[in-house]
Amino acid sequence: METLTSIIGKVVDYTVVPIGRQASYLIFYKGNFKMLADDVKDLQAARERVVHSVEEESGNGKEIEKDVKNWLEIVDELIETPKQLQQDPRRADVRCSSWRFPNLILLQGKGTFDRVGYLSTIDGVASSFSTRDSEIYETRESLKEDIVKALSNPNSCNIGIYGLGGVGKTILVEKVKIIAEQLKLFDKVVEAVVTENPDFKRIQGEIADSLGLRFDEETIFGRANRLRERIKMEKSILVILDDIWSMLDLKKVGIPIGNEHNGCKLLMTSRNQDVLVQMDVPNDFTFKLELMSENETWNLFQSMVGDVVKDNNLKDVAIQVAQKCEGLPLRVVMVARAMKNKRDVQSWKYGLQRLQSMPKKVLDGAFFGLRERL
Q1: What are the residues whose beta carbons fall under 8 Å from the beta carbon of 321, sequence distance 6 or more?
Q2: Residue partners of 320: CB distance under 8 A and separation at least 6
Q3: 247: alpha, beta or left, given left = phi > 0 and alpha = psi -120 to 50?
Q4: What pLDDT, on the 0 to 100 scale, is given for residue 238?
Q5: DSSP summary character for residue 197
Q6: What is the rounded distance in angstroms from the CA atom of residue 284 to the CA atom of residue 153?
Q7: Where do the H-state alpha helices sit in the chain?
Q8: Residues in domain NB-ARC (predicted)?
Q9: 233 pLDDT exceeds 90?
Q10: What is d(CA 223, CA 200) in angstroms, rounded to the nearest whole number?
Q11: DSSP helix/strand/coil, 117
């Protein structure tokens, strides 16, 4: 009798209990997964809102908070698990109800953040430049940071830099460009040199090359339309126009203006502030690049000319030569190259006499005729 009871018990264990479990599974399966699907749907909506905020902050040049990134990673993993269970119901267990609802609902609630992004310190990126640069252009570092902040400002559209020819506008813009690319402020950064007599086809070509665009059109108008449509394909883009001498027709170039493309920003350089005004650069986003200080001039000159200036017999005349460069980096570079490794006092005195006797207009023409871009 005991044996029969034992056998019946085992039969129940191996047949009735599993059947009961299966029945329970069949009863609760649809209900559980309907509730699970609803929770997943709500969580996906919360995720989408967070992703939109992330994209907006990234577009404004901000870094994303670590807790936001972690939340998105966890959400992606948890959303994927219910999908796998629905595709393979055999993996589903009634016990899934013990984890999925609290976790999904809790995660949905945690998808509300006080702050999604933050503006990373420009100093961190700027440190990638050499210490020597920082020492030479010590008063220009803050200006560089102000320009990058202006580019990051969601209210900015046109930003301008002005200053004397040879004062260093181009090299400043190049450094700003590097920082903008490292901070990923824009999806794309393109540039073109305008000059005193704009060659529209060349300007269009320089921008198009950066975008991988090849023109089939022959006319400036046709190329402008093509370039404009290509630029509008970029969600965010910075167009750098260097060395503008007079008002430039942006439509003729093919650059979207106004509300044509809100993701397009312009960074322009000119010798004349009035030109930037004509190009609709607001005063708040207009920056003047001043001449280098005497200390900056001497530091740059020393770094270019070499150790010869450490000779006490040469130092006094070398300082006078550096002063004749009048705080213009272009002059400093060209004069320093000419005097590099000259170790006799007579050569230095002759060089100083040449600089002193040469009319300023001729001096400027001699330097700028070399087409050095600084």
Answers
A1: 301, 335, 339, 348, 351, 352, 355
A2: 352
A3: beta
A4: 97
A5: S
A6: 11
A7: 2-11, 17-59, 66-87, 100-109, 122-126, 131-136, 141-152, 169-182, 200-211, 220-232, 250-253, 273-278, 294-305, 312-323, 329-339, 345-357, 360-368
A8: 141-307
A9: yes
A10: 10
A11: strand
Asked if residue 291 lies in contact with residue 326, where contact means CB atoms within 8 angstroms, the answer is yes
d(CA 176, CA 171): 9
Question: Does residue 161 carry a pLDDT above 50?
Answer: yes
Specify the CATH number of the domain 122-288. Answer: 3.40.50.300
- DSSP 3-state assignment of 266? strand
The 3-state DSSP class for residue 341 equals coil
**DSSP helix/strand/coil, 122:** helix
Token pair for 6 = 């034992």
Rg of the chain over Cα atoms, rounded to whole angstroms, equals: 33
pTM score, whole prediction = 0.61
Compute the distance between CA of residue 69 and CA of residue 113 in angstroms, rounded to an integer: 11
What pLDDT does residue 10 have? 44
Q: Three-state SS across 284-333?
A: HHEEECCCCCHHHHHHHHHHHHCHHHHCHHHHHHHHHHHHCCCCCHHHHH
Mean pLDDT of 66-79: 76
How far apart are alpha carbons 299 and 297 in whole angstroms? 6
Lookup result for tokens 């267990």 = 93
User: Domains of the chain: which residue ranges?
Assistant: 2-118, 122-288, 294-368
Over 50: is that where the pLDDT of 88 sits?
yes
